[in-house]
Specification:
Elements: H1 8-40, E1 49-54, E2 63-73, E3 76-88, E4 94-97, E5 109-110, E6 120-122, E7 127-129, E8 147-153, E9 156-163
Antiparallel strand pairs: 1-9, 2-3, 3-4, 5-6, 6-7, 8-9
The structure holds FE2/S2 (inorganic) cluster.
The site of FE2/S2 (inorganic) cluster has 11 residues, from loops.
Length: 168
């Protein structure tokens, strides 16, 4: 006979603890997974959104381009519509500018100020930007407009994130 006999009471304690722990883990694991899964989910790298804009149709005149995509914010998924001002510059390079004014976030328009034609104009506090998105000195915005990363696939313009203007 072994000296370490397990009493009936101890056996019951071990069994109940084991079964209880197993059941608790079974209940907690799905909750834990639900709580942290979206946070741990891979960001998926840079996402580009297909627009309806054919690259061949772009000219030197900025056009307003609305585009939509699904956005997942942790557990909440929604459809977001963004806007870009797009055109081809003198070198034929595509420029895609964010319309969000860098002063207080109003929306800029192209060529809507009679006194300052061919500029982006913000009606809120009369902020102005040149065609390449640079803020005009002496107006409220202190930074250039953000510009979208982009790529071209099958002749269609895809837009990525809007990033701050890179100093030359
Ligand atoms: S928000 Fe555009 S100038 Fe103030």
């Amino acid at each position: 006979m072994s000296k370490h006999r397990v009493s009936r009471r101890q056996f019951l304690n071990y069994t109940l603890t084991g079964v209880g722990g197993f059941m608790a883990a079974g209940m907690l694991m799905p909750m834990l997974r639900f709580a942290v899964d979206p946070v741990l989910e891979a960001a998926g790298g840079e996402n580009y959104v297909a627009t309806k804009q054919k690259v061949d149709d772009l000219t030197g005149k900025p056009v307003r381009l609305d585009f939509s995509y699904k956005q997942k914010d942790a557990w909440y998924e929604s459809e977001v519509t963004d806007t870009a001002w797009v055109y081809k510059n003198d070198e034929g390079k595509i420029v895609a500018l964010s319309p969000v004014c860098k002063h207080l976030g109003c929306t800029v328009d192209w060529n809507t100020s009679k006194d300052h034609p061919n500029q982006f104009f913000c009606p809120c506090h009369f902020g102005r930007y040149t065609k390449d998105g640079m803020n005009v000195k002496g107006t409220p915005p202190l930074k250039p407009l953000d510009s979208y990363d982009y790529k071209v696939k099958d002749g269609i313009l895809y837009l990525g994130s809007a990033v701050p203007h890179k100093e030359a």
